[in-house]
């Protein structure tokens, strides 16, 4: 089993279908399964260096849906990533379905943060549980202003904060499991 942090950044207006926003980056990084620590460099596929279609094709040439355990995505709110990836892939004529993406293994910490937030979705964003300074909404302005350096800085901050939290979850949850067995 090979775990990978996975996230995308998108560009689109709120009035539009939020699941059909343009993908501006796809980022992933190989992680050590038992600790969640990175074991390879962060890969950021950037649409402004090629095109949205090319970064989606490059990603799906690496992330092969048929090899379930060769790329196990780990992230926050992966359902959104999967919906957008499948819609945008279809937009570019690729045969990638949402069902294909959802049938493989993945680890989404969104549910954990909802539980930690007393079962409430509102207020359970990654920015509420980490030192992350903002939400992905800042990408809209950065992308419109062609400030790609700020997009990359945002991505690097986000993965650092995500991995800090994920590593704590991986460390603490086995202890919680032992405590719950004794209750």
Report on the structure:
This protein has 183 residues and is of the alpha/beta class. The chain has one domain: 2-Layer Sandwich (Nucleotidyltransferase, domain 5), CATH 3.30.420. The chain is 46% helix and 16% strand. A five-stranded mixed β-sheet has the order 3-2-1-4-5, sandwiched between helices. Helix 6 runs antiparallel to helix 7. The radius of gyration is 17 Å and the shape is globular.
Which structural traits does this protein have?
7 helices, Nucleotidyltransferase, domain 5, alpha/beta, globular, 183 residues
In CATH terms, the superfamily is: Ribonuclease H-like superfamily/Ribonuclease H
The percent of residues in helical segments reads 40-55%
Structural class: alpha/beta
User: What's the main sheet like?
Assistant: 5 strands, mixed
Count of DSSP-assigned helices: 7
Radius of gyration: 17 Å
Q: Please provide the ordered H/E string of secondary-structure elements.
A: EEEHEHHEHHHH
Provide the low-confidence segments as ranges: none
CATH architecture: 2-Layer Sandwich
CATH class annotation: Alpha Beta
- Using DSSP, what is the number of strands? 5
* Average residue-wise pLDDT: 90
């Amino acid at each position: 089993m090979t775990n990978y942090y996975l996230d995308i950044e998108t560009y689109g207006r709120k009035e539009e279908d939020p699941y059909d926003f343009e993908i501006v980056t796809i980022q992933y990084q190989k992680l050590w399964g038992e600790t969640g620590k990175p074991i390879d460099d962060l890969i950021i596929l950037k649409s402004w260096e090629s095109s949205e279609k090319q970064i989606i094709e490059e990603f799906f040439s690496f992330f092969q849906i048929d090899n379930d355990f060769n790329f196990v995505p780990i992230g926050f709110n992966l359902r959104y990533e999967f919906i957008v990836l499948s819609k945008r892939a279809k937009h570019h004529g690729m045969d990638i379905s949402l069902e294909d993406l959802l049938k493989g293994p993945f680890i989404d910490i969104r549910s954990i943060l909802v539980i930690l937030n007393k079962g409430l979705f509102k207020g359970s964003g990654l920015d509420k549980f980490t030192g992350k300074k903002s939400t992905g909404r800042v990408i809209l302005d950065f992308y419109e202003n062609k400030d790609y350096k700020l997009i990359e800085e945002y991505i690097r901050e986000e993965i650092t904060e995500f991995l800090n939290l994920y590593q704590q979850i991986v460390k603490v949850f086995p202890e919680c499991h032992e405590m719950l067995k004794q209750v």
